[in-house]
């Protein structure tokens, strides 16, 4: 059975053609910074540590922390985890990561997690999903993912996803989540509702701004609508529809391997540098 992760679905939703180039043809991204517009390098903190290492160590530290005993990690411990991950971090990078994890553990969302009936970290999930295939036949796929923190709160559930992006001042986090994480919300909500919760709240929390989690709530009565949305997306992906996004732009197209020549959109729409005359 075909397995589809939420991240693949999110990439596909953003641009079907880029998804095809990167995930099917395995073309490498353009040689330019791929940081999103909401994220800016921080002075004195972003020299060598890759976003991937920073993110995975932050997730690991949070996975091992206990919201019921919210103690910020010691800088030596953070430095040791970074070294274990093969990263040579600067003092500033260690301090930043220590602050991010400690900041979240002192937040109201962390306190809410501490009150949950059960709390599970790094929870893998899969659920079968049936779509209509060619000539009216049905086809099943497995939707899968891993939830950073799943909190059972009586009959309801709180799903928490940590984001370690560096957030530029003034960024509207609600708008950012609606744009960048709509599919993640959809899949997590369905995973919780299908798992038996009668209400699911999905919280995206940017560790840079731990006191401003972005929450989206879904009731059991939303299931039909969510399943329809997921079905449309999965159906297009499985059918091999790989159209360029209808709304290209510098942020979406940054780093895309198709931007220079393969994409049908002109450079002035994708932000590609025009060749000198
Ligand atoms: S340049 Fe933009 S619109 Fe074109 S394929 Fe890449 S991401 Fe999609």
Topology:
Blueprint: E1 2-5, H1 6-14, H2 16-24, H3 51-64, H4 75-84, H5 91-105, H6 108-114, E2 118-132, E3 138-153, E4 156-163, H7 173-180, H8 182-194, E5 199-206, E6 214-219, H9 223-238, H10 250-253, H11 267-270
Parallel strand pairs: 1-3, 4-5
Antiparallel strand pairs: 2-3, 3-4, 5-6
The protein binds iron/sulfur cluster (SF4).
The helix fraction, in percent, is: 25-40%
Highest-level CATH class: Alpha Beta
User: What is the strand tally?
Assistant: 6
The molecules bound to the chains, other than polymers, are: iron/sulfur cluster
Distance between the termini: 51 Å
Assign the CATH topology. Lambda Exonuclease, Chain A
- Rg: 20 Å
Overall mean pLDDT: 89
* Main sheet characteristics: 6 strands, mixed
Please state the second-level CATH architecture: Alpha-Beta Complex
* Structure annotation, total helices: 11
The ordered H/E elements are EHHHHHHEEEHHEEHHH
Tell the overall outline: globular
Whole-number tally of structural domains? 1
Which range does the strand content fall in? 15-25%
> Which structural class fits the helix and strand makeup?
alpha/beta
Low-confidence stretches: 43-47
Please characterize this protein's 3D structure:
- It contains 11 helices and 6 strands.
- It has 277 residues and is an alpha/beta fold.
- Strand 5 (199-206) and strand 6 form a beta hairpin.
- Helix 1 packs across helix 2 and helix 1 packs antiparallel against helix 8 (182-194).
- Residues 43-47 have low confidence and may be disordered.
- Bound molecules: iron/sulfur cluster.
- The site of iron/sulfur cluster has 14 residues, from helix 2 and helix 10.
- Iron/sulfur cluster (SF4) is lined by residues 15, 17-18, 244-245, 248, 252-253, 256, 258-259, 263, 265, 270.
